[in-house]
Amino acid sequence: MTASGGRSTALLGDEYETAVFADAKRYGKHVGSTEPRIATPPLRRLTPETSHGFSVIDFALTVLGIRLYPWQKALLIRALELNEDGTYRFRKIFVLVGRQNGKTTLLTVLALWWLFVDADSFPEHLPAREFLILGTAQNLDIAEEAWDAALKRCDPNPEEDDEEYVVEWLATETRKPVKTNGKKSLRLRNNAKYEPRAASRMGGRGKSAARVIMDEMREQQTWDVWGSVSKTKNAIFNSQLWGISSAGDAKSVVLSTLRAGAIKTIREYEQYVETGIQTLEEFANTHDVATALFEWSAEPGKPLLDIDGILQANPSVGYKPMFFDSIWSDLLGDEPEATKRTEILCDWVTSRVEPYLDGARWAEAADAPSLDDDGELVDVGSTIADSSRMVMGIDVHREKRLTRSTIGVAGFRDDGRVHLELIAQRTGMTWVVKHAIAVREKTGINQIAIQTKGCDAADLVSLLADARFDIVDISATTLLTSAGRLADRLREDKIRHRSQGPLNLAIANGVTKALSGMPVWDRDASPVDIAPVVAVTNALVGLESFAPKPKKPAPPPPAPAETITRDEAVSTEVNLATVPF
User: Fold this and answer.
1) In this predicted model, what pLDDT tens digit does every residue of 376-430 receive, in sequence order?
2) Average pLDDT along the chain
3) Which of 132, 276, 334, 531 is deepest in the core (most CB within 10 A)?
4) Is 427 exposed, middle or buried (0-12, 13-18, 19+ CB in 10 A)?
5) Ramachandran region of residue 163, left (φ > 0), alpha (ψ -120 to 50) or beta?
6) Phi and psi angles of residue 429, each rounded to the nearest 5 degrees, phi first
7) Average of pLDDT values for 66-70?
8) 193-198 and 370-371: which strand pairing?
9) Cα separation, 472 vs 494, whole angstroms
10) What pLDDT, on a 0 to 100 scale, did the predictor assign at position 35?
């Protein structure tokens, strides 16, 4: 996962080393790590012809007068790697680094280069008038920091205090900006634009952005913002999304999932390509090579005051006056250790409690992708036997003003093991019944296992019953034994599951409480939304212990009426047609 491999180091090259360390000023004896601890390796030798990072570095120094730190230069050269046709290799780039290391300066320089240089790169595919940079963060103030800093460099009508920052030729190419809070917009004379917006479900709707900046991604606790904003670039030629943050915690579901996927690809690249098992083309056909992760973080398990760990997570140390002393003081401060680890050491602290299930066993029980006879990727995680009965499990998570519902499913695989997976997770509850009906119409699943009392999910029971679902009542003894059943099946190697971020996160952090001496999932004590693990637990119980009663056979139809013809009539019968009245 590092750049220390022979092939990756060779691809960096002398030009990379020269550009990264040019003009660097050193302060103090401690020097932060220039190279990320975890990095997606380049596919081509990085030179001014194969990476736009060199151009950004030159623009920063010669136009803006900004001397970037070595780690910022290294990141730009790596992240702006080009394909042979001049388009960007990476569509999504995730950067993790300790706080106060200069990410705002980095984003400011990058945004200005995008506007004044990159917006005209492909006029036949993306004219400058359609070039939009969308900067987002959970708080609008954070999204506006880089925007405000960029405006200071090109404002044609600057405030008196900002006049010293303005670059004249940038200002001459800039129209009058909109500075109204919540509606800020920086627009060039060629109509390329940069707009900061709060990260929300509606923050990016209706906009097609060529470049997207997602600051502080660790704060995204649901997929709503990601689903809204990340899709704004899909219809744009040569688009790029940058997500930048310090490490997350147990609630950082989006960043955790995306990071895990990128790390998995890096590991498999090292396993298959760098060892010669697969060619790069073969690897690219079955993996996402357009997503990058560059992470400056302390190795897990490092002591809080370990200097090597500090330097791994804080690459600006040694290039920023007094920075190491400031970090050391913060680490000695009164903040909780978990906060120091996530924000200063960029160390993921996902749980402060002991999870109920064995995370290692759970990981071993996950299906790995495989290839079919034609070399196509097959997701074996969805392998439930055609003849198997299936059960849906439902649970609801409520936290302050947020409500999120989850649907899982369980079924028997061909090898006799139970297969578990999530099939839906969304904000709110109103969608659940309609979605369950759609699943039933497609798959025939009519059993739903759900806790019927003492939880938010209980509000769905009557609605599901009205929709004529067969309800498996998870309560009383069934509830008390449900979590233990999942633990037993995991230990006995009797379950498999699809590896899914929300479910894995719930497993890694879900805790139980004792009721009548039995372990029951504890929603309040668990530091994350554990509805995913509750939902699949419910589905497991329903599958194993609540087979629906066989339907009574329909009664046979009555015998057909006997038909009598006139010839068969007895002569003594009275003929009403001839009887006198």
Assistant:
1) 444 544 579 999 999 999 999 988 778 999 999 999 999 999 999 999 999 999 9
2) 87
3) 531
4) middle
5) alpha
6) -125, -20
7) 95
8) unpaired
9) 22
10) 95
- pLDDT, average across residues 20-49: 92
Helix, strand, coil % over all residues of the chain, rounded to 5: 40, 20, 45
Q: How confident is the model at residue 580 (pLDDT cuts 50, 70, 90)?
A: low
Is residue 317 within 8 A of residue 324, CB to CB? The reply is: yes
Please state whether beta strands 211-215 and 132-137 pair in parallel, antiparallel, or not at all (unpaired): parallel
Please name the residues in contact with 388: beta carbons below 8 A apart, sequence gap of 6 or more.
411, 412, 413
- Residue found under tokens 């890096």: 266
Residue 191, C-beta contacts closer than 8 angstroms, at least 6 positions apart = 128, 129, 131
SS (H, E, C) 444-482: CCCEEEEECCCCHHHHHHHHHHHCCCEEEEECHHHHHHH
Angle, in degrees to the nearest 10, between helices 501-509 and 253-272: 110
User: What is the rounded CA–CA span in Å between residue 226 and residue 254?
Assistant: 8
pLDDT number for residue 381 = 43
Token readout for 212 is 């997207």
CA distance 95 to 484: 39
The residues, any chain, with a CB within 8 Å of residue 377's CB and separated by 6 or more, are: 286, 369, 370, 371
Domains and CATH numbers, the chain: 6-343 (3.40.50.300), 371-545 (3.30.420.240)
Distance CA 368, CA 384 (A): 15
Q: Specify whether the backbone of 435 is left (phi greater than 0), alpha (psi in -120 to 50) or beta.
A: alpha
Structure tokens at 295: 């992470």
CA 61 to chain centre: 35
CA separation (Å) from 288 to 80, 110, 204, 255, 345?
16, 24, 24, 17, 28
Higher-confidence residue of 65 and 276: namely 65
pLDDT tens-digit series, residues 284-311: 888 888 999 999 999 987 888 899 999 9
Cβ(464)–Cβ(450) under 8 Å?
Answer: yes
> Which helix (H) or strand (E) element contains residue 242?
strand 240-245
How far apart, in Å, are the Cα atoms of 449 and each of 165, 195, 234?
63, 46, 38
CA 518 to chain centroid = 34
Structural tokens at position 27: 């302060």
